[in-house]
Structures are given as structure tokens and as C-alpha cells.
Amino acid sequence: MKTNTKITAAVLLSSFLLASVSGCDFSRNELASDHENGEVSSETTESSENTVSTKAEDEEEIYEVVGEGLTENGLYDKYRDIAKQIYINDGKDYLYGFGKEYLNGYVCENSEYALFVFDENDNLMEFKYQDGNIVKYKPCEMYDVDHLLTFDQFYHLPCLFNQYAIHADELMIETFKSVPGDGKYTGTVIGFSSDMNYAIALVGQIYAFTLSKKDCTYMKKGDVIEVDGDSHDYVTVTDVDDYGESIRIEVDDYCWFLFDKNDTEDEREYILTKFEQPYYTDSYSFIMIPISEDCKFDLYFVHGDVDGESLICNEKDLSVDEAREMILKNSDIVNDEGKTIITSYENGGFKMVDSIVKPIQIKDGMITYINLIRCVE
Prior knowledge:
Blueprint: E1 4-8, H1 28-31, E2 51-53, E3 60-65, H2 72-89, E4 95-100, E5 102-103, E6 106-107, E7 113-118, E8 124-130, E9 133-137, E10 142-144, H3 151-156, E11 183-193, E12 198-205, E13 208-212, H4 213-217, E14 224-228, E15 234-236, E16 239-242, E17 246-252, E18 255-260, E19 267-271, E20 273-274, E21 284-305, E22 308-318, H5 320-330, E23 333-334, E24 340-342, E25 345-347, E26 350-363, E27 366-376
Parallel strand pairs: 1-14, 21-27
Antiparallel strand pairs: 2-10, 3-9, 4-7, 5-6, 7-8, 8-9, 11-12, 11-26, 12-21, 13-19, 14-15, 16-17, 17-18, 18-20, 21-22, 23-24, 25-26, 26-27
């Protein structure tokens, strides 16, 4: 075979986030404009240091008394109000974000949501709801500033979620610029709007390409496969494993595609697979993106354990309305003992599901297909 085989791979463009300033009411017309009513805006601010380490200090104060029983929706509104006041007063060059606390270098997923504000002097402030008060203090753990946003971007976020759990390869502020290009993506759907018009997701372009049967049959270690239109010029075959009826062609550590020798097609699209991941991607972007009215859903919710799998939902080719009903019905995963092991919840008008997509199809700036997988071992 030729050692320079042309393949086609779609380009991962920068992603965008569009939402109304009201936070919860996201009509398509409102999302077509960005602060047309004269709302405040800010320019992208970059810090020379992307990671901040703050010393443990006894600087803790009650910022505001708000009373007991504040819901997550109420907390969402309160944090936005605090951020807006800081922005108006002196924080036009600051970075903002929702997050959860660190403990010994790890994010505490069970902790309460907090508001983080990073100022122009490299100081990080944390605002947290505690005992009926909003408490302001300087955290003593190390936080990655890459997860924070300009005020304008932050104020468009539709709900509370842990930005520190988002594995963005670049500054998050760099992924809010434009609509993702057409193609197949992998990643995680964080949540759906209650009307199912939008999804919040972390996505990366899937490496898909077309090879002939002859190319795959005679592929060998060291062969170079050129990649068109991507930041990579090529991928190199690092190993070839013959399993009799199939051949696994590796191009990176734990990254490969499989060729079936019994395949009757002369040419086929192949997808790179990463070990323990549905697909391989090396660049993620955080987006909020419209869902097409004609979008089709494949849903697979399952609880797996050492004794096998307990199937909760396995539905294919669902319409948007059918998918909404199934997601609401099966969003909480319960094990055989009746214990909820994955919980879905409502937040700012969004159903938070945190589910793998395998894959998600984007066309003309909208989601047209989702294969959604929600499972736990």
C-alpha cells in the first residue's frame, strides 16, 4: 500500500455559548443576538499565570445575609447578582466562574456550589453559601484559572455547574467564539434545557477517515496516514495486531481503529478509538448548542456490576418529544437494591444528566443526532 494515504477529518472549530441574559428563558430569537439591549460586555482577559496558588489566610467575612433554605436556582441568581455588582464596581477585567471546592487537590463533587472571582492582581476570591450567609474568603487550595470566564461569558451561563469538572484543553474563554463545524463529536452532555431546545456539552471532534480494504489489509508499522484539514499533518501507525478475522491498527498509545477482514465493502469510514473511551479526540470545547426539531436520539441507560448489567433504557430513533419523556422518566439510575446511584436534577431550567455521547452529530450549527449513554459500574 501507499505509505501516504489521504484521509478526511473534519476540523474542530472553536465552540460557542449563546444564552439570554435572563439565564433561564432561552428562546431561539433571543439567542440570535448578543446583548442587543445594551447589557454590559467585557473583553477576553488572559492572565500570565493560568494557575493560582493562594495561601491559607484568616480572611473570611460574611458578604451578605440571605437566610436559610436558598435553593440552587436561588443560589444561581444570587451568585450572578454578586458577580454583576463586582463587575460594575471594579471588576471589568476580572474572570468569573461557578465551581466546587478543592480538598487536597481534588474537586469535592458533593460540596456546595461556589462563585469564584479572579482579579487583575492575581487574587482569587470565593463566595460560598453557608449557614444562611454568603461568605467571602480566599481559598487555600490551588485552582486553575483556565476554567474561568470573562463576565460577559459567565453571565450567559444558564445554570449552576462545576466548571472545574470540565476538561477543556484550552482556556474556556477561547471556546466561546463560533459555532462548531459540521461533523461527528464525542464528549459529555452536561444537561438539556427543559424545552429540549438546547444542550450544554463538552465536545471534541471525532477523527473519522476513509480507507480502502486493500489499504487496511496491508497496513504496517511506520506507515504514515495523512490528515487533511486538521492541526495534525499525519498520524503514524505504531503497531498492527492480527486477530484472525480482524486487524487492530494502532496509531498512538491505546488509540486504534479496527478492520474487519470479512467486510464486503471496498471502502469504509473508520473511527479512531481511545482505550476506555468511545472515540478518540485531542481537543475539547465547551458549548451550548441548539437541538434541531428533527433531531434523533438513541438512549442507553444501564447499571453494570460484576454480575452483569441491569438495563434501564435502550431506545433508538426517538424524536425530541419522545427523548424528553424517556430522559425525565429514566434520568435517575437505581441499582438492584433500589438505591439511586446517579442522580439527575433540575437547575436553572436545565435537566442535568452528565452523559457520554457516542457520538453527537452537528450540522448547520445544530445537533441533528445524539447517541446518549448513561451508566455506572
